[in-house]
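Hello again,

I reread your note about wanting to compare the complex against the isolated chains. To keep things tidy I'm splitting this into two emails, and this first one only covers the full assembly. Below are the input lines as submitted, including protein chains and any nucleic acid or small-molecule components. They are followed by the predicted structure of everything together. The single-chain runs will come separately.
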Amino acid sequence: MSTDLSIQTVIEPFIIKSIEPIHMTNRRDREDFLQQAHYNLFQIRARNVLIDLLTDSGTGAMSSEQWAAVMRGDESYAGSESFERLEATVRELFGFKHVIPTHQGRAAERIMFSVMCKQGDVVPNNTHFDTTRANIEIQEAEAVDLVIPEGENPQTIHPFKGNMDVEKLKELIEKTGSEKIPLCMITVTNNSVGGQPVSMENLKAVRAVLDQYSIPLYLDAARFAENAYFIKLREPGYEHKTVQEIVREMMDIADGCTVSAKKDGLVNIGGLLCTNDDALAQKEKDLLILTEGFPTYGGLAGRDLEAMSVGLQEVLDEDYLKYRLAETQYLGERLVKIGFQIIQPPGGHAIYIDAATTLPHIPPSQYPGQTLAVEFYRAGGIRTCEIGSVMFGKPAENSPTEIPSQLELVRLALPRRTYTQSHIDYVIEIARDVFNRKDKLTGFKIIEQSPHLRHFTAKFAPC
Ligand SMILES: *Cc1c(COP(=O)(O)O)cnc(C)c1O
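Full-complex prediction:
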């Protein structure tokens, strides 16, 4: 540890070995691209984006060790050594008996819920990610969110805003009957409320309630390492434990997990389904063969399994995690200095700007989040993601106006190990420019949309 207190900069704990050029554009080019894309940022070509903060999923950079591992990939259909190495890594890190590879997180979810859920069942979670919710609802089961009240208020500061409300869990079980709850899930970190962590204390309290009713607990563990590092920083008693020990303690509380390895697995594609239940694992592997592939590759190439195995270990490096959370916090604090309201405190993987308070003159029906996201792109080629009434607005019965989303957010998600501090400083400069002109911005209307997941394809026009 440095004794020179004048050193404040948390440097990227890596050097750049291979580069991908950014294709530079100017404001006039981008105005054309916006018009061609009907102001939908999903329709902009990636080559015309300078800084892509659309998502942190599968967009990170692999290390030299991961690329070396890619070359070791054993592409045997059955019994591949690459699978043996991945299985050994996951068993050691997570401690689960059965390790089932899948092509990404939602494939693990689909298989798990198909095997565990039936019509009329109820599955609680702190907050369901959209794919877990969809995979439960397709089984005609109900997905219930039970996050603590602090988690629902963007401005409330709480060290573990992602926690589950244990009292509400008890009430739900009493009301529903434990026989209708085949499992409970906890999402670490809680993506949908801003990448907010869940404490070890909360995991233990949830487990204690579930034990009274013999309900299994599964973690939706896409960001298991970021969550563990937050525990180390914020939860008394964990400051001297290693992240690896904390990860193992989190996993030991659960009966299994689903993982999107596109997040803390540090790979561009991959997922995992883990369980300690032999009978369940057998059914899951049978289903895996039907749609993903043989259980020793599960929809991935041998080289993908190798990269995942190395990535799952690298993500536990505390210098990396320190840099990761410092980068997010740095962006968040500077946006607040400019005057933006964000979901507080900054989470692990993204900063969420409150577009409703930034653009109070633009009503939800004219999509303030979309307006701000378009302006970030126009001004600086920065691609962000609207999480507001474009994504969640619903048509109202007998009325031309929609039911708006609860919050109008713009998410700036940070790909892992991809952008340097100067990239982030550029984002902050553009944000300042946009903020200074915010009162002059005007909203959008939707001129064409599809009935499902409209945000991907909707066409917009300026109001
Ligand atoms: C990304 C994500 C998923 C889904 O994983 P995919 O790999 O995108 O299919 C599930 N849960 C959480 C919390 C996620 O962030």
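For quick reference: The mean pLDDT is 96.

B.
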